[in-house]
Amino acid sequence: MTRRELALLLPLLALYVAAWGFFPERPDDEASYVVLAQRLTEGSYVTGSDDAILDADPASPDLWFGPGLPALLAPLVAVDAPLSVMRLTSVFVLFGAVLLMYVLARERWGPRLGLVAAYALGLYVPLLGLLSNLHSEVLAVLFVVVGMLGLARYLGRGGPAWLALGGVGLAGLALTRVAYGWVLTVALVLLVVWWLVRRSSPAGRAAAVFALALAFCVPWLAYTYSKTDRLFVWGNSGSLSLYWMASPFDGDLGDWHQAHLVFTDPDLRPHRPFFESLRGLDLAEQNTEIEREALGNIADHPGAYAENVVANISRMLFNSPYSRTQQQTNDVFYAVPNALLLGAVVLCALVLLPRRRRLPPETGVFALLAATAFALHALVSAYPRMLAPIVPLVVWLTLLAVVEAGLLRQGGVGPGTPRPSRTS
């Protein structure tokens, strides 16, 4: 990247610094990330608290979060950096994702459309609200773009370096947002089926990248096994998230609540007997019982679960509805950009599906990853910020659709210039 190209993107860095200082503090999971980073500096991660799920202590539940963001913060924690400095890492992580998005799009469409892609990602407004506090989604966005770059170059050129880059990016995504461990697993299965049915070379190569990413995650899975005695545990947040989504009680719309609030919030009183039954069980047993109860509720009340899934999709996109909560003033903050995002997805479907046989080889893989991530997040309690890692994929696909529809011309690609490789 030249100095001129970097200078054209620096306004985004300035915007991120301003957002870091402007948006209010909303700690959310921040305290937990700092505690986990501190543990890493001490050579540990999980303390094994048996009351983790029922406790309001931000240090637990210990396997709730992947090690990605705590690992990034650990060097700063080790030197006693102030919290404001730790939060500033999000600014540079997001700017790094924008730079890589520019590189990825520039290679496909030229520098002018590279800037369009970089600014489309960089100006996705909900990302700005994540910069004033520590959120794993910002780091996840960076890892998604790293994975996209590795995938695109490996599918187009081959070579172990690009295979490794794609694997590292996707592994980092799964270790930062543990739900993506399941996303990668499901996507890998679908890619293998795609390859077996179509004998598609891009599908086979993409499957190799996803398999390598999962292989990189084996140490984490071995660690979770040592703490839970269960195989293939990415984290322990899924059971509780599924429980709230499966709630059949009147007034519940599937949004997430801290378990300890069941004992104080009168609206959650119907859940109290079940959570009382968890006392005395260790963490792994609590999660097993929560998962069993959730699956039982889904089997007994499929209609209620389906309604909660619809409400959950609306929450991811528009930050509404929530159980027993009126519309919030910041809903427009999510509704407008996500309405544009939804429109972009519709455009992609209308333009790209009829042309699917002649699109760049990474197109189907990116679409599969985005669709799988969205579908799996729809099944458990989710928030709008959980859309963030999907946004780079939608931006790339949308730019491809705009180019294919003839609404924008590729810079540096014209008559007589070989077109990029296509799917087989």
How much helicity do the residues have?
Answer: 55-70%
* Distance between the first and last residues' Cα: 31 Å
- How does the helix and strand content classify structurally? mainly alpha
Strand composition percent: under 5%
Number of helices: 18
The main sheet comes to: none
User: How many β strands by DSSP?
Assistant: 0
Describe the protein:
The structure is a single chain. By secondary structure, the chain is mostly helical. The protein has helices spanning 3-22, 30-41, 68-78, 83-109, 111-122, 125-128, 136-157, 160-176, 179-198, 201-216, 218-228, 238-245, 272-276, 283-300, 302-318, 331-352, 362-378, 391-404. Helix 4 (83-109) packs parallel to helix 7 (136-157), helix 5 (111-122) packs antiparallel against helix 18 (391-404) and helix 14 crosses helix 15 (302-318). It starts with a helix and ends in a 20-residue tail after the last helix. The model is unreliable at 412-424 (pLDDT under 50).
Layout of helices and strands, plus pairs?
Blueprint: H1 3-22, H2 30-41, H3 68-78, H4 83-109, H5 111-122, H6 125-128, H7 136-157, H8 160-176, H9 179-198, H10 201-216, H11 218-228, H12 238-245, H13 272-276, H14 283-300, H15 302-318, H16 331-352, H17 362-378, H18 391-404
Helix pairs in contact: 1-4, 1-5, 2-3, 4-5, 4-7, 5-18, 7-8, 8-9, 8-10, 9-10, 9-17, 12-14, 14-15, 16-18, 17-18
In short:
The protein has 424 residues and is mainly alpha-helical. The protein is 64% helix and 0% strand. It has 18 helices and no strands.
What keywords describe this structure?
globular, mainly alpha, 424 residues
